[in-house]
Amino acid sequence: MPRLMFWKPAPVRVIELHGLLAVREGALNLKSVGPAVERAFQGLGKRGGAVVLDINSPGGSPVQSELIGSLIRRRAEEAKARVHAVIQDVGASGGYWLACAADVIHASALSIVGSIGVVGGGFGVTDLMQRLGVERRLYTAGQNKARLDPFSPERAEDVDFAKQVMADIHEGFKDWVRARRAGRLRGDDAAIFDGSFMLGRQALELGLIDQFNDLDGVVRSLGGPHARTQVFRPVRRRGLMALLPRRSAEIIVDAALEAVEARRFQIRM
Questions:
Q1: pTM to 2 decimals?
Q2: Which residues fall within 8 angstroms of residue 112, CB to CB, at 6 or more apart?
């Protein structure tokens, strides 16, 4: 007796975007995320389809946010795909930038959303150097080559320069949000673009997200009650060296960087 073959729907494609946005190894950046984006949009067919962004990120590098967001939009338009973003615990700052690459943004009522702003800063150790008797010797070609050097006294013109750079980046962030959320934003700029994070329920009122839903709910709405997922994850480590034991110092440094950056975000929250 011949076996009955039941048709199975194609799995829902999910791109996992978890972690900090930074150039360094192990973080979200174009090098690690790009291959996952390419694979997720390949093979959708002439009719297009849907791709889901699974986002859990407090942000980080504005450059990497822009590069990844732009790549997602290009591939979505080429494939005629509709993109859904699901913000889990956090989709703030650069994480929200990534969410705006989607056509529809979903989140929990308690998700951390927004933080549409830019922060910068550092440390000055000139007094400590003086107490230790350390003499700073710095040689440059170009009067501003050592601008914002932490071992030199702070100059007012350098502070103004840094603030202008951050203001320009902020304007680019606002332009991206306005373009991607056109016709859906509600409320004045002071409430939306002041850099504050907010809960999902407030984000829904301001039009920063479209509806409350979680990843399972979005997958089932796209693929039916028995939907399967095909998850595309960033490439964290590549090549033969990834198979070798990592040095203890490297592990400690990586862990320290993760802890410092994560704690910094938690304190601000």
A1: 0.82
A2: 58, 89, 90, 91, 92, 197, 198, 199, 269
